[in-house]
Amino acid sequence: MHLTNVAIQKHSEGYSHAHGGKWSLKNLRQYIEGTRGTPAAVTLMEDVGWVIVHSLKAVQNVIINDKHCFECYGFDIMIDNKLKPWLLEVNASPSLSTTTLDDKQLKTQLIDEVLDLAVPPHMIEAAQSSCKPARPRRGSTSAAAAGFPTNFELLYDEAIEIEAGRRAVEASAARAGGRRGSEATGGGQWSKVASGRRAFNTPHWA
């Protein structure tokens, strides 16, 4: 992540050629934990995640969806003094050129993790089953056994929201049917059962 706009700051006398004005999210989180406390750091990371989710949902109908390819998006997010994240812009296929050794390490790790997400580990393992052993992909069973990190976090599952919405509609229809039955019969046992039913909880982002 950029702490400053490198294209501008690299011309400053105070520019650091060691880190290039960049931190990893891990370092940012450690800094927030040290200065604001762990709860504040946890909340910030969750808020950043929701900024990403909501921005993608806002344009999901116009994003090109091709199962034969993938694309990496770069999110520029500004954090104010109250630790509120603000989305500045989203870059399609952001630059992966590097300016410092730390920058190279960050972006090399980024490329590795993007491939882990885009190509399911079992596909790699299946392709390698008839070949000589190779470095296991992160996220796979063999990767966990080899000590590679497997801690990817799922920010949003659209299938869960769709299922919750379907159940809410069914519950609403059942309640409506119960009310009509009550009006026709003058209020019977079915109306008591129907009135006692509740819609399934829908995700709080819906």
How would you describe this protein?
The protein is mainly alpha-helical and 206 residues long. 50% of the residues lie in helices and 7% in strands. It has helices at residues 6-9, 25-36, 38-58, 101-118, 121-128, 141-146, 158-185, 189-195; strands at residues 73-79, 85-92. Strands 1-2 form a two-stranded antiparallel sheet. Helix 2 (25-36) crosses helix 3 (38-58) and helix 7 packs antiparallel against helix 8. The radius of gyration is 24 Å and the shape is extended. Mean pLDDT is 75; it is low at 139-143, 145-149 and 187-206.
What strand order characterises the main sheet?
Answer: 1-2
What is the helix content? Answer: 40-55%
The overall strand count is: 2
Number of helices: 8
What does the largest sheet look like? 2 strands, antiparallel
Kindly report the average pLDDT value.
75
Write down the secondary-structure element order: HHHEEHHHHH
Q: Which residues sit in consecutive blocks of at least 5 with pLDDT less than 50?
A: 139-143, 145-149, 187-206
First and last CA, distance = 29 Å
Question: What's the overall geometry?
Answer: extended
As a whole number of angstroms, the C-alpha radius of gyration is: 24 Å
Strand content: 5-15%
Secondary structure category:
mainly alpha
